[in-house]
Amino acid sequence: MRKIIHIDCDCFYAAVEMRDDPSLRDVPIAVGGQSGRGVVTTCNYRARAFGVRSAMPGGEARRLCPDLVMVPLDMPRYREVSRQVMAVFRELTDLVEPLSLDEAFLDVSEVEAFQGSATLMARHIREQVKARVGITVSAGVAPNKFLAKIASDWNKPDGLFVITPEQVDDFVKALPVEKLSGVGPVTASKLNDRGLQTCGDLREAGEAELVRLFGKQGLRLWHMAHGRDDRPVVVTRVAKSVSVERTFSRDLPGKEACQQVMTALVDDLHRRLERKGSHKPLHKLFIKIRYSDFSTHTLERVREPGPGAMPVAGEFLPLLDELVTDEQRPVRLLGVGVRFREDSAPVTQLRLFE
């Protein structure tokens, strides 16, 4: 059984603007839509209370909300914030499928951190994004992508909703057809006209009837009405590094305690490398430490040629010795990782003159 998390940033562009300009936090704002024919890209929840929505012409948005503050798009800034958010996801798992700048699926089925609880993982991600990036995200946890995406929208904004495997049947049965992926106003109206209001109604209608009425889409409706979705999380990003880290429920008392957990941490790193099935040569080793006061430090070194394909705990100890100068300082988080050598990168220095 898969464990899928869908993360969706709350009114992403507007959230970044409010984060960076405190004067915007208590007023209705919309991003985009400044010219006569411009449309609203997104808006905050204060603006939505007036009926302002994405893709609405700016003029109409201003008529609905005369005090609306229009903010120009700043895509380079949004892309940078998106990179920071996605980096938080990838600290937990390499199986991340971004759908856009502000949302992604994560497959955490094999993640052992947080006792393997996808709910605890989603809670951790939300806390980390808020603390480190300064915006809120909503999360949905479910056995597949279809349900996880519905769940992330269930308690927006700044929410978390979980659908366990045992809850799937009852949850889906009562789900309005308007919530189904690909069911817009036109399809919803056709379904409603036939008395099909919920997924339970779709089940009673039967597969053959849905296919007769809607063709291939009818088959999709039939599967969604039963909560089925076998699509895997698709990773298109080439990993340049692999790492593992542990946040300890009780701070480690100092360097010696860090040394004692290093073997177990490197064993976790081995398992992650094996799951990825990567055969790229290792280029660097790195270590990360977060102390009890939340200050974070990292150190990396080029890996010396000669050792085997997998790093061993002893290779990280010199980095630990160099990074931890206060041997008694409590440690909240400890992480280790490797960076791969880029095959396309030159391995010898080019001469300046022929």
Can you walk through the features of this model?
The structure is a single chain. The chain has helices at 12-20, 45-48, 58-64, 75-92, 118-132, 145-152, 168-173, 185-193, 199-205, 207-214, 216-225, 255-276, 313-323; strands spanning 4-9, 29-32, 40-43, 69-71, 96-100, 103-107, 137-142, 160-162, 241-252, 282-291, 296-302, 331-340. It is an alpha+beta fold and 354 residues long. The strands form three sheets. It has a five-stranded mixed β-sheet. Strand 10 (282-291) and strand 11 form a beta hairpin. Helix 10 packs antiparallel against helix 11 and helix 12 (255-276) packs across helix 13 (313-323). The chain is globular and about 70 Å long. Mean pLDDT is 88; it is low at 344-354.
- Helix content range: 25-40%
**Strands, total number:** 12
Shape: globular
Q: Major β-sheet, in short?
A: 5 strands, mixed
Which percent band covers the strand fraction? 15-25%
The mean pLDDT is 88
Structural class: alpha+beta
N to C succession of SSEs: EHEEHHEHEEHEHEHHHHHEHEEHE
Low-confidence stretches: 344-354
List the helices and strands and how they pair.
Elements lengths: L3 E6 L2 H9 L8 E4 L7 E4 L1 H4 L9 H7 L4 E3 L3 H18 L3 E5 L2 E5 L10 H15 L4 E6 L2 H8 L7 E3 L5 H6 L11 H9 L5 H7 L1 H8 L1 H10 L15 E12 L2 H22 L5 E10 L4 E7 L10 H11 L7 E10 L14
Parallel strand pairs: 2-4, 7-8
Antiparallel strand pairs: 1-6, 1-7, 2-3, 5-6, 9-12, 10-11, 10-12
Helix pairs in contact: 4-5, 9-11, 10-11, 12-13
